[in-house]
Design brief:
By secondary structure, this protein is an all-alpha fold. Helix content is about 75%, strand content about 0%. The protein has a domain of about 35 residues.
């Protein structure tokens, strides 16, 4: 009986310790600037690839 009670109390304490605390400030946004720059670079790379493909198609059409 005491083992069950101890297990129950430990479980309740563990669950209470794991619950989110609403009083904590939000976590800082780490590396936000670097992520934005990476997203922009990916967009530029995609645009360059589209232009390169279009240029290759034009070259192939002129060669025919």
């Amino acid at each position: 009986m005491t083992y069950r009670l101890a297990t129950l109390l430990c479980t309740i304490l563990l669950l209470a310790a794991c619950s989110p605390n609403d009083n904590e400030p939000p976590a800082p946004k780490l590396f936000e600037g670097q992520r934005d720059a990476l997203d922009k670079a990916k967009a530029v790379d995609a645009e360059l690839q589209k232009r390169d493909e279009a240029q290759q198609k034009e070259i192939e059409q002129q060669a025919q």
